[in-house]
């Protein structure tokens, strides 16, 4: 684990993963969207409105998946002081927030023709909205301090506390009366959804996961490069300051002035 936390090892591994992640993302999203929009049948009750499901459900999965990943990275940052773990958590937050927001938006678009309203305060919707606020709170908190280390610790603590909301989102339809139907994919006894709808869901979920991996690698690379540039700049300033205080430097400058 510690070996992969080295930036040089990560960058080497990321370079090998990136082409595969891009290829898998493009292929699975292309095939999944084709199956979802063209091949899969319309629902006998909902009609073509059901096709919103192919974006809504994978977005919900990814919102939860990214949050768990962010919390795990936050724990690693707090316990083992891995700088890469903190960078990965920061890089994950905007992606997870985007998926969560996409889930809420598509849910409203799907709910209006089905329920007759854009929003209801049931347990699933409310807990998903809380998840979005947790993402936004994390992003605000890590950038709220002049000392980046304090921001990282505060953000990691919030991420870990917020993990309690993940099972609430998942099991809210079982624990309370909600407008959402119970799970039809991840359930005991196997999926109850027809394969013609299950395959597009699966492929788009894989595509979204690949997209997350691609964006994560790009954002971590960017942050590592920015930190390296800042370190070089600070090193240059430090060297220049040290030179101006060196006797030989002062003597040379004095001789040059004559």
TrEMBL record:
GO molecular function terms listed in the Swiss-Prot or TrEMBL record: heme binding; heme transmembrane transporter activity
Q: Name one GO biological process term.
A: cytochrome complex assembly
> What are the residue boundaries of the Cytochrome c assembly protein domain, all occurrences included?
11-180
Q: Which InterPro entries match?
A: Cyt_c_assembly, Cyt_c_biogenesis_CcmC, Cyt_c_biogenesis_CcsA/CcmC
Principal localization reads membrane
Q: Where in the cell is it found?
A: Cell inner membrane; Membrane
TM spans, by residue? 20-40, 60-80, 92-111, 123-145, 157-177, 197-220
- Membrane topology summary: Multi-pass membrane protein
Highest taxon above the source species: Bacteria
| Cellular compartments per GO CC | plasma membrane
The keyword Coiled coil is annotated on this UniProt entry: no
Q: Does the keyword Transmembrane apply?
A: yes
- Swiss-Prot/TrEMBL keywords: Cell inner membrane, Cell membrane, Cytochrome c-type biogenesis, Membrane, Transmembrane, Transmembrane helix, Transport
- Described purpose of this protein according to its UniProt entry: Required for the export of heme to the periplasm for the biogenesis of c-type cytochromes.
Q: Which family does it belong to?
A: Belongs to the CcmC/CycZ/HelC family.
NCBIfam families referenced in this protein's UniProt entry, alphabetically: ccmC
What protein is this chain from? Heme exporter protein C
Please name the source species: Thalassospira marina
Q: Source taxonomy lineage?
A: Bacteria, Pseudomonadati, Pseudomonadota, Alphaproteobacteria, Rhodospirillales
Q: What gene name is listed for this protein? A: ccmC
């Amino acid at each position: 684990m510690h070996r992969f936390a080295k930036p040089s090892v990560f960058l080497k591994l990321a370079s090998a993963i990136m082409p595969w992640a891009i290829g898998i993302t493009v292929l699975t999203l292309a095939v999944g969207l084709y199956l979802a929009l063209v091949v899969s049948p319309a629902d006998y009750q909902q009609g073509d409105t059901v096709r919103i499901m192919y974006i809504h459900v994978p977005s919900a999965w990814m919102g939860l998946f990214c949050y768990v990943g962010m919390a795990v990275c936050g724990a690693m940052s707090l316990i083992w002081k891995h700088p890469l773990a903190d960078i990965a958590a920061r890089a994950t937050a905007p992606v997870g927030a985007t998926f969560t927001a996409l889930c809420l938006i598509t849910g409203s678009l799907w709910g209006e023709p089905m329920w007759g309203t854009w929003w209801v305060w049931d347990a699933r919707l409310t807990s998903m909205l809380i998840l979005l606020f947790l993402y936004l709170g994390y992003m605000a908190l890590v950038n709220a301090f002049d000392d980046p280390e304090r921001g990282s610790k505060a953000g990691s603590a919030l991420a870990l506390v917020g993990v309690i909301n993940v099972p609430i989102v998942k099991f809210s339809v079982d624990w309370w009366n909600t407008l959402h139907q119970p799970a039809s994919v991840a359930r005991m006894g196997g999926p109850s959804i027809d394969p013609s709808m299950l395959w597009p869901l699966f492929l788009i979920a894989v595509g979204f996961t690949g997209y997350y991996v691609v964006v994560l690698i790009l954002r971590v690379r960017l942050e590592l490069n920015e930190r390296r540039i800042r370190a070089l700049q600070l090193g240059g300033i430090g060297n220049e300051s040290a030179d101006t205080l060196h006797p030989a430097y002062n003597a040379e400058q004095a001789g040059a002035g004559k």
